[in-house]
Amino acid sequence: MSEPAGAPQRLLGVALRGMAMGAADVVPGVSGGTIAFITGIYQRLLDALGNAPTRLWRAIRQRQVSGLWQSLDGAFLATLLSGILFSVMTLAGVIQHALETWPIPVWSFFFGLILASAWHIGRDVGRWRGDRVALLLAGAALAWWVTGLTPGQAPVNTMTLFGAGALAISAMILPGISGSFVLLLLGMYTPVLSAIDGLAVSDLAVFALGCGAGLLAFARVLSSLMHRFPDRMLALLTGVMLGALNAVWPWKQTISWRLDRDGERVPLVQENLMPGDFGAVTGEPVFLKTALMAVLIGVILVFAVDGYRAFRQCKKRALS
């Protein structure tokens, strides 16, 4: 592993990354996997999750518990999860309020963030050949189609809760599509939030089991693919992120509504509009200059994080 797990300053950095991932996953259309990628912990996260079942089973069979925590990269995973949970519990309301109060600037910021992140991932592709361009286009088309689907309404039972957990958590670690967006598509967003709010232990347990199963299984597959076909997977993920821009386009017209857990109307189906059409159709301000500034801030943030990582790597090499 590239970093000692126990260094307090590094664990603080991991916790901050977890908080950023949690904040991103609250927003339907923004993935915590995107944050993991641009902050440099994506492959480590996949490897830790993907290898966990095998290493745990080996330790149980051989009755060798000593060293298991380090083998599982336990400090990293526990710290990251703590950051994610802390962020979800403390920042969810703030982010939702910002989306409701200043939708165009906030969506514009995330648009810039994802756009720059797609460049960041695509830059790491060794050579753009025909098969990689095809994978990029396929990923973009798939994400564009998924983000344009009309949300459904699934019955709330053991199977749907388990399946929703597995699919949502898988989306969370895939850059481009968020877990909360998948829950919206499945019609499970409000039931899951209601279960959390009402402390419905049995429902939450089933959902958590689905999350655990989906996370371990999907992370293992994704980790294996990233190691075996790195350039092709990076090309595919770049396409997924570009296609997912459809979900965070700032100018939207609401076609239909749903009731949230407080009984208030929130958008269910929305249609993307060009800025000029948005003003004509809705009669609301376009805030074009503000939106462009917010996009620029999102882009600059990704470049700043990337530059800081490059600086730390150069400093590390110089000291070694």
UniProtKB/TrEMBL annotation:
Domain of life: Bacteria
TM annotation in the entry: 75-95, 102-121, 133-149, 161-184, 204-222, 234-251, 291-311
Name listed for the protein in its UniProt record: Putative membrane protein
Keywords in alphabetical order: Membrane, Transmembrane, Transmembrane helix
Source organism: Tamilnaduibacter salinus
